[in-house]
Structures are given as structure tokens and as C-alpha cells.
Amino acid sequence: MDEELLKAYCRSAYRVRLRCGGAATLRIGEPLPVALRPLAGDRDWGFLTAWNPRSRPLPPAVNRAAQRRLLADLRAGAGLELHPAVGVGTDGWREPSLWIVGIAPGTLERLAERYGQNAWLQGHGAGSAHLQLR
Fold it and tell me: Matching InterPro entries, A to Z (predicted)?
């Protein structure tokens, strides 16, 4: 992976929409935000998108279709909680995403592979967000 791309992933903000309004921001290497801890409990979680596979921009219609397929795949998984989210880069980059609670790391990795993602976040409970690379 290109070093600049890796730096961009690390500098990005990963925002999860809160039901009461606003958002909680995940940052790589930092503990889960306090507002998300009751939702995560003692479960695995991940942050994933289907937008722009291999970090190459695609037309919005293509990205939206891929995101709908990802959402359908996740809804087929028993016991998962899905929360709207967005990845936001320092250069104006934005990708609609999902924060997924209750997803096993292996399942998350398989979905990242299926949707061509170079990287995703995963964590457990209130622990730190870890950047996972393909």
C-alpha cells in the first residue's frame, strides 16, 4: 500500500451517527468514544464501507449500489447492529460507511475482501480502534 494512502487512513475521522443527534468520532489507536460504549458492550465491532474499492473513486451510483449490497449482506447476519457512519479525510474525502456491532473479525475481513476494501477498522468493547489492512 502506498505510504501516503496509509497516512490518509490514519488521519481520517470515522464518524458514527448517534440516535440522539450528532456523531461520535472513532480515531485509530484511540479508545471507543464514551457515547458508543453502551452500544458496543463487550462485543466485537467494525467500521466498513463498500465505496471506492481499492481506494479508487467510482461514480456515486456505482458506490451506492455496492453499499446497498453490503447492507443486505450485513442484515442477513444474525445479531448484528448497524449504525450509519461516514469516513472523513482531511482533504475533503467522505465515504458513507457503517459501524457494525457484533461482527466477528473474520466476517469483517471477508466482507472487506468481497467489497474490495484496502482497510477497515475493528475493535472490541471500549478498546481501541485498530486499522486492518489487506
Answer: DUF3293
